[in-house]
Design a protein that fits this description.
CATH superfamily of the largest domain: Probable tRNA modification gtpase trme, domain 1
Structural class: alpha+beta
Largest sheet: 6 strands, mixed
CATH topology of the largest domain: Gyrase A, domain 2
Order of helices and strands: HEEHEEHEEEHEEHEEEHEHHEEEEEE
Number of helices: 8
Shape: globular
Amino acid sequence: MKQTSLHDVHVRHGAKMVEFGGWHMPVQYGPILDEARRVRTQCGLFDLGHMGRFRFSGPDAVALVDKVASCFCAKIPIDSIRYGLLCKPDGNPIDDVLVYRGQDDVFMVVNASNTEQDLAWIRAHAAGMDVTIEDQTNELAMLALQGPNSEVILQRLVPDLDLSKVGYYKSGFGTLSGLSNVRMSRTGYTGEDGFEVYFPDDQSERIWNELLAAGERDGLAPIGLGARDTLRLEAGMPLFGHELGEGKNPIEAGLNFAVSFHAEKGDWIGRSALERIKEHPQKRLVGLVTDGKRVPREGYPILHGGREVGTVCSGAISPTLDTYIGTCYLPLEIAQAGTPIEMDLRGKQQSAVVTELPFYSRNKK
């Protein structure tokens, strides 16, 4: 398995390590629900070195991204970020991505398990284009600070960039703990305010430790992937391989905002298929809540009126809402909030109810 440069740091601090996307990653340092609550109320530090990171430069950099990604790269303002998807011609996604528009380049973050296939896919569709594609996964560390205290903590180590002026889905460059030209962005995958920082990988342990020291008074602690998954589910954010993948397209997943059919964007891979799906969707991704004894788990059949109508995509205990939550695709006629459904657990039914996504929004506390 692959390891990030912080692997030994995680082990020394007692993290439980698991395989994730081909990487040996910390799933938790302590109780997962406690870690999730810390991020919601204080701040957590995540090692995201397993995520793929690509840089595109040259005259056709933007055109290439607009060819392979569903978002409209040419319309992204400089230093802004958009969520998008890489789709096959049939509209099924091969990954979901973040696209950063720079003055002279485009930066893309992809999922860990898909990095190699994404890179090969993009390079194959760059034939004949004047563009340089760099895989920066191994040379750049990627850390994330997530939680309401993230701005004040990070600002202590950033003397030359006013983070209060870096808006949501915006980015900038500044000095981080003596390292110049560090990319800092404000997106997050937890539903909380937060920042991502990218810097030379050989500095990862020093920056990790200095961030933890800077945030100690504000409750900052390392957080594992288990809490990250719980937090993103509460926030209604999809996970590739669960809410997205073969047979789970972005239109029916409710991600229309990430799919551009603008005439100026022109044709792109998957556009025609997704336009057809938009006109005649068959199902919709929804949330479910249950107060039964069993937590929704991936693959559990969903029943309505005695017949199977879907399966659970993701499920967890929600520490914020103090209940059991999950996601599933349902036919449009029953994908309405308040519809009663059942989970089938090896022949035993547990009642649940359809709910709108997201389950949690920090703007609607």
